[in-house]
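Crash report, auto-generated. Payload:
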Amino acid sequence: MQSIEVPEVVVLRLPLYVRALTQLQMAGTDVVSSQQLGGHLQMTPAQIRKDLSYFGRFGKQGRGYNIQFLLKELRDILGLTREWRACLVGVGRLGRAIINYTGFAPEGFTIVAAFDSSDDQIGTDVGGIEVLPMGDLAKIIATKNVTIGIVAVPAIQAQPVIDILVEGGVKGILNYAPVAPQVPIGIVMRNIDPVLSLQSMTFYLKD
Amino acid sequence: MQSIEVPEVVVLRLPLYVRALTQLQMAGTDVVSSQQLGGHLQMTPAQIRKDLSYFGRFGKQGRGYNIQFLLKELRDILGLTREWRACLVGVGRLGRAIINYTGFAPEGFTIVAAFDSSDDQIGTDVGGIEVLPMGDLAKIIATKNVTIGIVAVPAIQAQPVIDILVEGGVKGILNYAPVAPQVPIGIVMRNIDPVLSLQSMTFYLKD
DNA sequence: TAATGTGAAAACCTTCACAGCT
DNA sequence: AGCTGTGAAGGTTTTCACATTA
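Recovered output after restart:
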C-alpha cells in the first residue's frame, strides 16, 4: 500500500469509527467485522474496509478487526493520543455554554484560555477560566501552547477574530459563528452551524 | 430542464447561497454574478451555476443574478418562507443554551415546547417555555404542529428519545448528542457534533 | 468457512468550455 | 462584452466481486 493522499471524506469518517468502536469495547466486545460495524453506523462494510485500507491492514481474514488494536491505530492516525489545547473567543451565552460543555475534556480537548473584547467581561471568571483581553491573545497562544481557536462571537466579528487567531498562531479553528470565513491554506476550519443544518433539512420536509 | 433527483451535496450548499445573498442584499447590492458570489464563498462560479441549474434558470446572460429574485426562489426551494416549529428534548445546560440561542427565530425556526424526563425539571420555566414530561410529547407534537425535534440529552438517552420523537410524528431531527442515531427512512437527521469536528481536524494538525 | 484487502467498475460530483442570450 | 446554462470531460468516491488468508 503506497501512501496516496487520503480523501478528506475518509478522514471525516474516522472519528465515527473511533466512537462506535469505543462503545463496542465498553460493551465488552473484542472483535468486530466490517459488516457488524457497518450495521452500527449505517454504512456498507465495503466502505469501512476501503477507508481503513488507506492507512494499513488492521484486520484478520476470516475473523474481523480486533477492537483494541484498531482503536489504538485509529487514535494514532487521528492524533487523539495527546491533549489538544484550545482557546475560546467570545464569552457570551454561546461561549459560556461551550466552556461548560463537558464533552470536550474526556476526548482530550481542553480550553485553557478565554478572550472577549468587552470590558465588562474582561477579568471575570467563566467556568473557572479568567476572561482576558484580546490583546493578550498572541502571547497566551504562544506560552500556553494553544493550537485550536474556538470562535463564539457574533457573525460580524467572526472574520476579524479569526484573522487575529490565525495571526496569533493557531492551526485549527472551530467556528460557531454563522459565517463562511476565509482562512489561509494550511489552517483547518470546522463550522458548527445548526441554522444551516435546519435550512437544508427543510428542503426535504416542505410538502 | 427535466427534474432529475437533486444531489444532497447541492441541497446542503443552498443555505450558504441564501446567507451570502442576504448579506449582499443588506449591503445594497442588486445583481451578482456567479463569479462574485463564488468569491464570497470560496467556490467556483461553475459550481454555483450548476447547482442553481438543478432548480431553474434564475440568471440573465451578460448580467448575472438579481439578488432579490434569486433569494426568493431559493427560499421557496428550501421551504424557508414559512415558520418551522420545533420541540426540544433535554433542558440541561446544552438544552438551555439552545432555547436561549437567538439565531433560530430570525430564520423562522421556533421552539414551541420543551421536554425533560427529570421530575426536577418538569414544570419549570426555561427561557419562557414550560418544561413538560415526556409523556406529553406525542400530544404536543400533534396539537402544536411540531415537525422538528431537537435532541439535547446525554448520549445514552439519545436513541430512545429519537425513537419517541419519530413515533410522535416529527419529520426531522436536529441531534446534539454525540451518537450516530438510526432513524427510519423518510426522517431527516442532522447532527451537531463539535467533538467529531475536532477529531477530524487533529488529523491535519498532528505533526 | 468467514471475512479481509483491493483492483476494477459503477456511480457520483466538479470543472471545463462554449453556444447562446442580453 | 459579459455572463448564464449546460452537455461533455475529468476527477473523485463508492460499490462490487473475488483472490487470499486465518
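Post-recovery validation: Residues 8-78 of chain B form a domain with the Arc Repressor Mutant, subunit A fold (CATH 1.10.10.10).
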